[in-house]
Amino acid sequence: MSSSAKKVKKAVLRRLSVFSGIGLSGIDRQTSWPAVSPSSSRFDQWRYEQPVDITNPLAIRRTLDRRVTFDSVWHSRHKTEDDFAEITDDADANKKTERKTRCSEFSLLTSSISENDTHNHSYVNTIFKNAELNHNDVFVSAFGKKGTNAGDYQDAKHITCFSNGELLITDLINDRLQICSNVTSSVTIFSPDEIKQPWATAVTTDGNIAVTSCKERCVKLFNIKGEFIDEFGQKYFVRPTGLAVDNYGNFIVCDSVIDKVSMFDKNGTFIRFLGNSFIQEECFNSPRYVCVSITGEIIVSDCGHHKIKVFDSDGNFIRSFGSFGNGDRQLKCPYGVSTNKYGDIFVSDHYNSRISMFSREGVFIRHVVTSEHGLVHPQGLTISHDLYMYISHGHLKANEILVYKLSDALDYEYSNIIHYV
User: Fold this and answer.
1) What does the domain layout of the chain look like in residue ranges?
2) What is the mean pLDDT of residues 274-303?
3) Would you identify the CATH topology of the domain 70-114+131-414?
């Protein structure tokens, strides 16, 4: 490094503004960055070295108490040793058993996170102001951090919401699924040998759990206890990603390498490919996620084409919307897709770092959450029947889950929607 470059570097370092929020409540500005630990990523180390503009809303962070969910939404519980269960394979007994494990770092519903632990979280340099959310949408909570312990994530790709309010979250790098309970304040780790690089999950009509395994190139079925049942699709997949189950029990599976979206019946028998590879509007380029709307339409995020494509329940193409860009009606590599009870379509606009809302016809309505609220590269997205929205996000890999309560108001004034079906 030349002497002039060293002088510039020293001048920049002298101008760095550092923040912390120790002992403050609500939304506070930082006066010092937490120390960078050996486990911090190179991106985190770079970020901590950058100057912070105090006029920039992204320089405001949530204090630790914002990680604790509100009593009005979740039931407060005290964490105990019995709150954590890991599904393991007992070789001696040749059957699945539950092993209770202690994990002092998991804090889905408890405030066990210390000030020294904040550097592991992607929210350190973000803002969450409910006043900035439109239509009475409310930020509820955030949980998870980078790691391998219970409640940690290395790459949370997908979120499934059970009817009882529990969340099933896939972790591609940790090779496991985690069920987070809002009733018992616990997390159950599914890590049988059969799960390798899980991307997405879906609940079958029989109440079992279907998982796309990227490494083994198939869809695997487990019961709710984590016991392996069956698998299918090895002849059709190279890298299965998004997964959904329709009202008839059929499986819809994306493959981001061969650019196909396949439909299988409830027994795992191949039915058809969606779309037409010879028609530009119907072909795919790296499809990542899929969901089924309340009306039975199949909605696919066509990541490479920066579009959302909609098919009927038989797999016939209906419409598409979106184009490359950062405008209101544009997308940059859409990831997770989900719908609410009105049929509105919500999209994780990955590289625009926002959640965008469209009508079922593809008419843009509004951006629900953006980078101004601290959202960074969203991936998994799901909306529960009672309008709670769950998002997995993170700078390089998704390691935090955000929870929002969406407004139940219709958005007629923001589009030319005439009615909902």
Assistant:
1) 3-62, 70-114+131-414
2) 95
3) Neuraminidase (2.120.10)
